[in-house]
Amino acid sequence: MRARAASVQAQLEAILLAWGMPADLAAETAQVMTDTDLAGIDSHGVGLVPTYDAMRRAGQLRLDARPRVLRDGVATALVDGGAGLGHPPAAFAMRLAIAKARQAGIGAVGVVNSHHFGAAGWYAALAAEAGCLGLVTSGTRTLAMVPPRGAMPVLGTNPIAFAAPAGEEPPMLLDIATTAAAANKVRAHAMRGKPIPEGWVVDADGAPVTEGEAAVAQVFAKAEGGLSPLGGAAAGHKGYGLGLMAHVLAGTLTGGSFSPIRLRTQAKDEPDNIGHFMLAIDPGAFRPAGDFAADMDAALGVLRATPAADPGQPVLIPGDPERAARAERLAQGIPMPEALVAQIRAVAEAAGAPFLLVAAA
Amino acid sequence: MRARAASVQAQLEAILLAWGMPADLAAETAQVMTDTDLAGIDSHGVGLVPTYDAMRRAGQLRLDARPRVLRDGVATALVDGGAGLGHPPAAFAMRLAIAKARQAGIGAVGVVNSHHFGAAGWYAALAAEAGCLGLVTSGTRTLAMVPPRGAMPVLGTNPIAFAAPAGEEPPMLLDIATTAAAANKVRAHAMRGKPIPEGWVVDADGAPVTEGEAAVAQVFAKAEGGLSPLGGAAAGHKGYGLGLMAHVLAGTLTGGSFSPIRLRTQAKDEPDNIGHFMLAIDPGAFRPAGDFAADMDAALGVLRATPAADPGQPVLIPGDPERAARAERLAQGIPMPEALVAQIRAVAEAAGAPFLLVAAA
Asked: Which of A13, A46, A188, B40 has a Cα-to-Cα distance from B130 of 20 to 30 A?
């Protein structure tokens, strides 16, 4: 089924409302999640509803939370996510960072006591829409990344997102996991019978696992081994360091939890206390904003004009694939496997929310 | 020859003074360059003296420049490097960012009209020594990175450095090029007859070049092809985006040049106008500084205790290899090939500076 985007958004909003989320926050969260599916990031949008439902039932997620400022300075702040879903406090924090950037040239807002917030790029893009540069990192709930020399995962797929506005060009938007590949990408490769590239998955001896089923087992089922950091066997220290940077900014700076420590003692109904980091920079604090936009256009234009190895496959700007997916999915609908549609139907029914998904024309 | 570190520093200071650099800036630049060699980053320290000399003679470098504040805000500033070497304005800018962080919680200082500044990590470490988190990126002079799908290089090896202080543990210090490998690392592999790992170097068709001599030619001699971004063939869009982020913060935000545009029109004696970006964050703006330090210690301790694939090779913290190199080189001296020693002797003589290098005991 390819579902109409508007129906996905309405469905998400109805479920979140039925779960007790305040109306304004439910509307915004549904927007973030739908935009994420429209951008082609299926792993971070509507597909997470069953997971969120399970956490809510376990008492780990307080859906009625409202973000609240704990500390407020001229260019910094700390926001309490109230153990709710991460989308509302993350959006609130980036808006606060943008407001501070407009006053002080730069604003950094941390979020503590939060949860999964979807795709980091959504919040970075919010800064670019407001004419600011945006940088976002986040802590993570699970263990996934095996550091160089290691036999066990100790970091997550801690994301880094960055956005910068241009003039005529659309904004640059980067949104990456600091692992070599996302866990779901390993599964997708295995399902299509493709070999897993060396440098994506390692076993407990640090040796590459390239056979599909074995790689999936290593990532999803076994305690030892897991995903390699960005850079793989030859340069994994770079991805490891970037992942740790993402955690230090989002977790250590804010008072968020560090998964390998939290997981040792966490009770089943104890919130995860995930942290996020939101930075906004007003280019007008450094030079006339029009000059910045003109230079962004010039740089992005040069990158697009790079001679291509295959003239039919031009060089892209970070953000182009997501924009192309959005245009296609707004027209054709958001792909939803039948199993997911059935899960959404069941979750809606259990919550007392209407089933609203409609196939695209 | 392994030269005593103190003699390398004295030699650098004498040459820089003879070139007309103000005494305080010559002392600091000699310190930055010597620390970089001590950290094992031979490509960014004393080995650059002949390159700096050639640029100075070509009129591209104004050695008598003194950094000057162009714009000053509560949490941001822009510094003019005066077309001199990048070390003085970069250190000046990070100190200014730290001072702003102490007042406003965060400080971001850009540098424009600068030049090569050595290793980005030195400036990030400055923030950590002052109890702040530090983030540094830089523009670059040359073209090196071929973007995914591209046939020609359009970005440099634009670095990202990040440092964070801890309590009992030494600071975390990450300092990476956003290419899969540094150009000099390709040369070092080729010289030792080692094959070049796939994902480091590509030709004009985007195909991997793994034979040593061919890879060196591709990187150093040919206009087409070059270094792959961090992530290589499977995830090069990540390194490409990170490299562009480094340039946007350091170059576009400050008014620095973008190499593929500058190189089209630059006169031989025209300064390169490289930009840098310095960010400092005071953890005390977010939570009690002692709590931050304690959580850093806990996280770094967990990472060190990661079960290792080979128990004789424990998992490291970003910064450990540089600290180990420093201890070894302070004791044993800084390795300097005879050819470099001869070059330094010639540069010193031509500048009217004494030759001061002394072998370590």
From this structure: B40
Tell me how far the alpha carbon of residue B286 is from its chain's centroid: 29
The domain limits of chain B are: 1-57+320-361, 68-180+228-290
Q: Please provide the CATH number assigned to the domain covering B1-57+320-361.
A: 1.10.1530.10
Determine how β-strand B76-80 pairs with β-strand B106-114: parallel
CATH 3.30.1370.60 fits A68-180+228-290, yes or no: yes
Q: Which residue has the tokens 């340069």?
A: A235
Q: How far is B12 from chain A (nearest CA, A)?
A: 30
User: Do B68-180+228-290 and B1-57+320-361 fall under one CATH topology?
Assistant: no
Contact residues, chain A, for B260 at CB < 8 Å: 302
Cα–Cα distance measured from residue B104 to residue A106, given in angstroms and rounded to the nearest whole number: 10
CA–CA dist B36, B42 (Å, integer): 7
Q: Where are the beta strands (DSSP E) in A145-291?
A: 159-164, 172-177, 201-202, 226-227, 274-281
- The pair of structure tokens assigned to A141 is 């709930």
Place of tokens 């509507």: A46
Per-residue pLDDT of chain A (361 residues; tens, 9 = 90+): 999 999 999 999 999 999 999 999 999 999 999 999 999 998 899 999 999 999 999 988 999 999 999 999 999 999 999 999 999 999 999 999 999 999 999 999 999 999 999 999 999 999 999 999 999 999 999 999 999 999 999 999 999 999 999 999 999 999 999 999 988 889 888 988 889 998 999 999 999 999 999 999 999 999 999 999 999 988 999 999 999 999 999 999 999 999 999 999 898 888 999 999 999 999 999 999 899 999 999 999 999 999 999 999 999 999 999 999 999 999 999 999 999 999 999 999 999 999 999 999 8
Name the residue among A1, A315, A87 with its Cα closest to residue B241.
A315
**What type of residue is A117?**
F
* Nearest chain B alpha carbon to A133: B249
Contact B242 A296 (CB under 8 A): no
